[in-house]
């Protein structure tokens, strides 16, 4: 049975690790695996009458098939600014403007590009693991403070064991996500 302070330390650690994992998963979605996906345009900002606005707030983004993305602005006068924003985002897309919508044909990935994407995914996974380890270190420092504050040594040992168990659990989740992403990228 852990004291309130130890439980709080564990909860805070779990919450921080959850947030790190969520951020990691979001970054992973931005790495495309050859199939068209509305998230590929996440991060594209459009000058909407002088206000820099995310692309999904000024248009409807759909993927009618695995090879194309359709961007349909709610205001047709925004077609050119959206097209400009997509080109400026340097995503390797060349939108086709037909006066109604922007059609983006997602080019198939070359072997070289796939390897680059795997490297990028691996780097994201490593960054996430570093974040998890930093959270672990902070939690361990907190446990040392709790020990100084008079929490019994056997409870501190138990707390540190649970912190390590959490760390291992999250590192494993990251590794699994990377494995799946790598397979996804390398599958033609």
Please tell me about this protein's structure.
By secondary structure, the chain is an alpha+beta fold. The protein has two domains: 4-31 and 110-186, Orthogonal Bundle (Topoisomerase I, Chain A, domain 4); 38-105, Gyrase A, domain 2, CATH 3.30.1360.40. The chain is built from four helices and six strands. The strands form two sheets. The chain has a four-stranded antiparallel sheet with strand order 3-4-6-5, with helices on one face. The protein has a two-stranded antiparallel ribbon with strand order 1-2. Helix 1 runs antiparallel to helix 3 (111-148), helix 1 packs parallel to helix 4 (153-186) and helix 3 runs antiparallel to helix 4. It starts with a helix and ends with a helix. The relative contact order is 0.17. The mean pLDDT is 91.
Task: List the keywords.
single chain, about 190 residues, Topoisomerase I, Chain A, domain 4, Gyrase A, domain 2, four-stranded antiparallel beta sheet, 4 helices, about 60% helix, elongated
Summarize the structure.
The protein has four helices and six strands.
Number of strands: 6
Total domain units:
2
Taken as a percent bin, the fraction of beta residues is: 5-15%
One letter per element, helices H and strands E, the order comes to HEEEEHEEHH
Under CATH, the topology of the largest domain can be stated as: Topoisomerase I, Chain A, domain 4
Helix content: 55-70%
Q: Which CATH architecture of the largest domain is right?
A: Orthogonal Bundle
User: Which class of secondary structure composition applies to the elements?
Assistant: alpha+beta
Mean pLDDT, rounded to whole units?
A: 91
Q: Can you tell me the overall shape?
A: elongated
Strand order of the largest sheet: 3-4-6-5
The profile of the biggest β sheet is: 4 strands, antiparallel
Low-confidence segments = none
Distance between the termini: 51 Å
DSSP helical segment count: 4
Radius of gyration: 22 Å
CATH superfamily of the largest domain: Ribosome-recycling factor
- The level-1 CATH class of the largest domain: Mainly Alpha
């Amino acid at each position: 049975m852990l004291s309130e302070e130890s439980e709080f330390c564990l909860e805070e650690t779990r919450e921080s690790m959850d947030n790190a994992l969520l951020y990691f998963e979001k970054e992973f979605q931005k790495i495309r695996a050859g199939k068209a996906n509305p998230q590929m345009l996440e991060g594209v900002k459009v000058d909407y009458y002088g206000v820099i606005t995310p692309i999904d707030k000024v248009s409807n983004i759909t993927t009618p098939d695995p090879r194309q993305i359709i961007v349909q602005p709610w205001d047709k006068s925004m077609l050119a600014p959206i097209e400009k924003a997509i080109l400026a985002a340097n995503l390797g897309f060349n939108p086709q403007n037909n006066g109604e919508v922007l059609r983006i044909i997602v080019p198939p990935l070359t072997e070289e590009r796939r390897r680059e994407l795997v490297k990028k995914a691996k780097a994201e996974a490593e960054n996430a693991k570093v974040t998890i380890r930093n959270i672990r270190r902070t939690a361990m420092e907190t446990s040392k403070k709790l020990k100084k504050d008079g929490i019994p040594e056997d409870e501190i040992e138990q707390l540190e064991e649970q912190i390590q168990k959490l760390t291992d659990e999250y590192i494993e989740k990251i590794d699994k996500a990377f494995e799946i992403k790598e397979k996804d990228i390398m599958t033609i």
